[in-house]
Amino acid sequence: MKIIAVIPARYEASRFPAKLMQMLGEKTVITTTYKNVVETELFDEVFVATDSEIIFDEIVRNGGKSVMTGQHETGSDRIAEAVQNIDCDIVINVQGDEPFLKLEPLKQLIQVFKEDDNQEISLASLKIKLTEKEEIENPNNVKVITDNNGFALYFSRSVIPFHREISYEVAYYKHIGVYAFRKHALLQFSKLEMKPLEISEKIECIRYLEYGMKIKLIETNFIGVGIDTPEDLEKARKLI
Hints:
The protein is of the alpha/beta class. Helix content is 32%, strand content 24%. It is built from nine helices and eleven strands. The chain has a seven-stranded mixed sheet, sandwiched between helices. A two-stranded antiparallel sheet has the order 2-3. Strands 8-9 form a two-stranded antiparallel ribbon. Helix 3 packs across helix 6. The protein is globular and about 55 Å long.
């Protein structure tokens, strides 16, 4: 299999505009993410897909590869445009605002497709257990519930599952926005109309579920820093 990584990068983020061009140590957020993905040595190629000339120039200036795209509602739609003429089998989507992703979770996602002999899985992604009440209730944390085989049943910004039976302990999982797609499934995704659940929740992988595709979730204990707010940026700078 030919495996590539694509990092969707939008300059005008709604909650924190220009966050990808903020400095983390001596590099910007987007350059830090790009360099970290390249250094895993897991991929035949790594690209940044962006509609911003500022981000495009930043990556090229630092010796990276970038692809200009049109404007899109979701990162997956942006990646689909970027890869349609690239020869590959599996596309790993690494979020531009997740600069500290580690090697092992990426290897786990790739392994999902190596073991999928019948090619039934359209998408693989990551989840991590939540234990703090504040984190479970935070709508910026997308929660996911899965079946006994690890396939996604639903994603939500609300608290799922609802803990009605308090005598029974239930686990909560946060969805980490790192995706591994089969290329043909990604291209199919980009042609599908958004349905009400995706529009309501603003969670793009719900589109796969609404059209009956299979999403495999891998549990990880990796704790990164997704940069959605200025406060998140300060946390990341402390890690640097």
